[in-house]
Design brief:
With 390 residues, the chain is α/β, with parallel strands linked by helices. The chain has 13 helices and 14 strands.
């Protein structure tokens, strides 16, 4: 069967035409979602009652947005009182984000939160700058959000951890555990791996604890025996490995067992899913992972039970949605200035841990801590660092 074509358009024009159609459709869907969000809030509320939520409910990361929304709605049910939630779909897309932000602005919210994607957070920060409405970023992690905050005069507070928090925590771990050991830093040659290890090495150099060996390996190989042999010959006793995928880290851990290689091994958070992998049984106990963690407290257990009763699988994104609304409600004052002052000066006890903002608007709590594989689960290691970040 012959494919229908547009005879008057070349390939480039056809692509441009179809892209326009797609963007228009997504804008229409976003508008529909915004109307739906407005309908759920009922009559327009006063400034001190309305919380704006910008999240992706369409596009490639819509599932994350839906999970975040579930947590936000649960927080409203438990803590909301007279407050209401206005939800706008930003699609994690610049064009849709502009529409979402305009609709949020029209509602005159007391505070805006959500903002899971970097570019969307920047658009929101710029748009709300003149209004004085505080922007509580609960998902985007760009360092730019805090580095440019003062220069751009953004009334922005980044509750989510920064891109640099993971390797900052790793640097603390290495300083605590390997000060007397020769060690290596290894990456997989990807952009993620290089950026992670470059940041890690810089911090360790500043602390006077440079690695004895820096190495890398080719990703997506069936074995990493060559890497392990190089590390053995170098005489190091420990290695930190940053990789973009869990598969590569699993291969390395399995090879250590197969070739009887004795190393203290710590990996980046891509191995956080180890307990759920089919290959978990072949990974030797003792492998360590620097990953995000949640507090082990009654509040987490209570919310988890509520989710289970509703047949909802608890995820970190749900907890983060809950925590964002929790902090937003707690921070609210009689006007934007008072809410901003509260965010600047107060510490908030949230579902995902304490939240306190430094002079750059960054959360000083680093959720990345060290965990060790016991053959069944990843257990927190007692001497985890809790160093504030910037």
């Amino acid at each position: 069967m012959k494919q229908k074509t547009f005879p008057s358009l070349g390939n480039a024009s056809t692509n441009a035409f179809m892209q326009t159609v797609i963007v228009s459709a997504r804008r229409w869907l976003a508008a529909l979602m915004i109307v739906s969000g407005a309908l759920t809030t009922g009559a327009k509320t006063t400034h001190a009652e309305l919380i704006g939520l910008s999240i992706p409910l369409s596009g490639d990361v819509a599932e994350l947005g839906r999970e975040f929304r579930a947590g936000a709605r649960l927080a409203m049910e438990k803590l909301g009182g007279n407050h209401e939630l206005f939800i706008a779909d930003d699609g994690c897309d610049p064009d849709l984000a502009k529409l979402a932000v305009n609709d949020l602005m029209a509602q005159e919210p007391a505070i805006v939160t959500g903002l899971l994607c970097n570019e969307v957070a920047i658009i929101a920060a710029n748009r709300f700058r003149e209004s004085g409405i505080p922007v509580l970023v609960a998902g985007a992690r760009s360092i730019r959000l805090v580095k440019d905050r003062e220069r751009e005069a953004w009334n922005l507070f980044r509750m989510s951890p920064g891109d640099d928090y993971a390797f900052r925590a790793a640097a603390e771990v290495i300083q605590q555990r390997w000060r007397a050991k020769p060690y290596a830093i290894v990456d997989d040659g990807t952009i993620f791996g290089r950026m992670y290890t470059d940041g890690l090495r810089l911090l360790l150099n500043e602390a006077g604890l440079e690695p004895q060996v820096s190495d890398n390996f080719r990703a997506a190989q069936s074995t990493q025996a060559g890497l392990l042999r190089r590390l053995e010959r170098s005489g190091v006793e420990a290695a930190f490995i940053a990789a973009a995928t869990q598969e590569d880290l699993v291969v390395i851990a399995k090879n250590m067992k197969e070739f009887d290689v004795s190393l203290d091994l710590i990996t980046s958070s891509q191995l956080a899913t180890l307990p759920y992998l089919e290959e978990a049984g072949s990974v030797p106990p003792g492998i360590m992972v620097v990953k995000e963690t949640l507090p082990d407290n009654e509040a987490i257990r209570e919310v988890t039970e509520i989710l289970k009763e509703q047949n909802i699988l608890p995820t970190r994104q749900i907890f983060e949605g809950y925590a964002a609304v929790q902090v937003a409600i707690t921070a609210l004052g009689k006007d934007h200035a008072e809410t901003t002052a509260n965010l600047r000066s107060n510490e908030f006890q949230s579902l995902v841990g304490p939240v306190r903002f430094d002079e750059n608007g960054a959360n000083t709590t680093n959720p990345y801590t060290l965990h060790i594989w016991n053959g069944d689960t990843l257990q927190p290691v007692a001497e985890n660092p809790t160093t504030p970040t910037q």
